[in-house]
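Please fill in the sequence for the structure shown.

STRUCTURE ENCODING:
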């Protein structure tokens, strides 16, 4: 490559604890609104660039609100404010969850991260590099969508997510008819090992009434013992993916939840 990109993470503020949930952060109490945020600055330097592309900028600048509503409801709202993102500020995540049967079953409705891929569903503060890999960005687009999702499981044994969404990733009505079904299942055969898989099947009918469909599937493995962590993931896709007009862009729009 002619240009070599060096990305340096300078500051991470408002770092929350990672949780196994759809959003990056949970409400810390049952009283009132909790304000949460995440700020990440970056310096980008190009060698042999034709123009002066080197710069400081915000890779992620997010703020939102989480809270609980009596009884058995919670909400999660997150905005992206980074001027480096196209169309910012915009709604990154926004969903309401009914959790009467938690942790076995929870029902969420709104805009959330698709339950596809281990790396996509790793919250931004839990990533080991500043960005997600290119293959994850390409094959999980759109990383966020609007619809319904069931998730839950048995702690330390198995967890699942099943989502029925529009399939376009956009936050406004478009001149297409589509639907996507996405699911993810993980289980822990022993305390140190986690295995899982996920898949997505989508159908799109465009303005010319031409039917397009695509499928994505992934397998994942994680071994964790003390401070040693080994992760691996296989991700593959077949078929056409309609371009998303979502202002959040690709699946870095995936950084929020688990936004």
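FILLED IN BY: designer on duty
SEQUENCE:
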């Amino acid at each position: 490559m002619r240009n070599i990109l060096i990305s340096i993470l300078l500051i991470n503020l408002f770092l929350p604890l990672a949780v196994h949930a759809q959003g990056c952060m949970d409400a810390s109490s049952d009283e009132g609104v909790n304000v949460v945020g995440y700020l990440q600055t970056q310096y980008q330097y190009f060698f042999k660039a034709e123009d002066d592309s080197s710069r400081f900028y915000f890779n992620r600048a997010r703020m939102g609100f989480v809270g609980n509503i009596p009884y058995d409801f919670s909400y999660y709202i997150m905005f992206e404010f980074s001027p480096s993102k196209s169309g910012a500020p915009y709604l990154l995540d926004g969903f309401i969850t009914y959790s009467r049967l938690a942790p076995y079953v929870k029902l969420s409705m709104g805009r959330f991260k698709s339950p596809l891929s281990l790396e996509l569903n790793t919250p931004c503060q839990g990533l080991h590099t500043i960005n997600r890999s290119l293959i994850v960005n390409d094959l999980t687009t759109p990383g966020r969508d609007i619809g319904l999702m069931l998730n839950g499981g048995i702690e330390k044994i198995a967890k699942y997510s099943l989502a029925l969404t529009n399939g376009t990733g956009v936050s406004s009505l478009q001149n297409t008819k589509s639907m996507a079904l996405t699911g993810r299942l993980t289980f822990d055969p022993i305390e140190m090992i986690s295995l899982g898989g996920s898949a997505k099947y989508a159908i799109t009918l465009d303005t010319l009434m031409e039917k397009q469909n695509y499928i994505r599937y992934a397998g994942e493995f994680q071994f964790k013992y003390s401070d040693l962590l080994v992760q691996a993931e296989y991700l593959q896709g077949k078929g056409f993916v309609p371009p998303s007009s979502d202002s959040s862009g690709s699946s870095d729009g995936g950084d929020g939840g688990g936004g």
